[in-house]
Amino acid sequence: MNEKSICFQLNGVFKTDASEETITGIHEISFSEGKLLFEGGKHETLRFIPSEESCSFDLKGVTIGKKFHWEQKQDQRFLGELRFIVEEGAVTAINTLPLEWYLTSVISSEMRATSSLELLKAHAVISRSWLLAQLSQKGKNNHCGNCKPAETAEERIRWYDREDHLHFDVCADDHCQRYQGITQISTKAVETAIQATRGEALKYGEEICDARFSKSCGGVAEKFENCWEPTPHPYLAKVVDNANETDADAQDLTIEANAEKWIRNSYDSFCNTTDKEILSQVLNDYDQKTPDFYRWTVTYTQTALTELVNRRTGIDFGSIIDLIPVERGVSGRLTKLKIVGEKRSLIIGKELEIRKSLSESHLYSSAFVVDKEKNNDGETIFKLTGAGWGHGVGLCQIGAAVMAHKGYDYRQILQHYYKDSEIVKVY
Fold this sequence. Notes:
- The protein is an alpha+beta fold and 427 residues long.
- It has a domain at 1-97.
- It has 9 helices and 25 strands.
- The longest helix has 21 residues, at 117-137.
């Protein structure tokens, strides 16, 4: 949370590193002349240390779903220590707490705490693995927040990954993992999942797996290198999301005709479900505003698409004439798309750059095909028909929920999505 001023409430007795006195109740901290302004005093940093583990604190108006279509503000409650620092000309709030406490919150924030036990166990392992993998790489300067490895007059190829945060380990939103403290009520099942898998992580050889996940793969999981830096992760590979892990129509979705057939049709996939009970396990209330996950459509007039693309890319294409697939990954997701305008054309990629350019937030996925037709006024309409929600790499949350519902245990779920990995107790 980074704001000019932050209102917070201390529930219980806390101590600060600024005085020997204890403190509780509602307070406000603000940015002023390069310092933290708190109760008349100015500070470089300020810590609030709980006197007991049960003490909590509330942050008012935390933005969740930043830059996504469900963005909103939410009051949130946390356990652990609260620290404030000056960052980017504002106040940043930082929560320090044990890793397993963090995981309890992540699982309850990424999905409902009432989800099936095996699904919660699977997510506990991958959330722990992802975090440990990030911490092991911290400071090595090999994370890329906004890479531009290929930007020419003809191409703009970017990928967006979790760049190192300078003053803390991970952020609390979808950019890293959803962490909403104890706002999302935990359950005995969550506690059981954390305890049953305590210290367990996925490993590939000697490496802790960078266990990516998304809401819905759309029937086929994508390779890591087709979404981020071109470094293959063997455990993040193509997965056909059904019990047999095969489908004739999913043989080679890098071929345009095959991808088009796949995207325009519905198949036997774990994540192909409309079961509201299962979906409610993975999707919090604000996620359920998106009704279609496996297959979806988005429609733009030529005027609306032109304004959107020109503004989102910062490039004056003129009126958009066409959107042409150039290159697809193994799941049918576009990794390169050619935007053709009256003034100029440009090939863009990778998948998130495409999604950001074609939506006010993020298009559901880059696995789509384009149809053009005329409306009653004679204006060209661009209809995007797509598959899945998210990058599609690693575990498919909706697919995993269906697998758990069908009786698969967490080890089987993880082996399905992370090929040749193993579950190892690392502490």
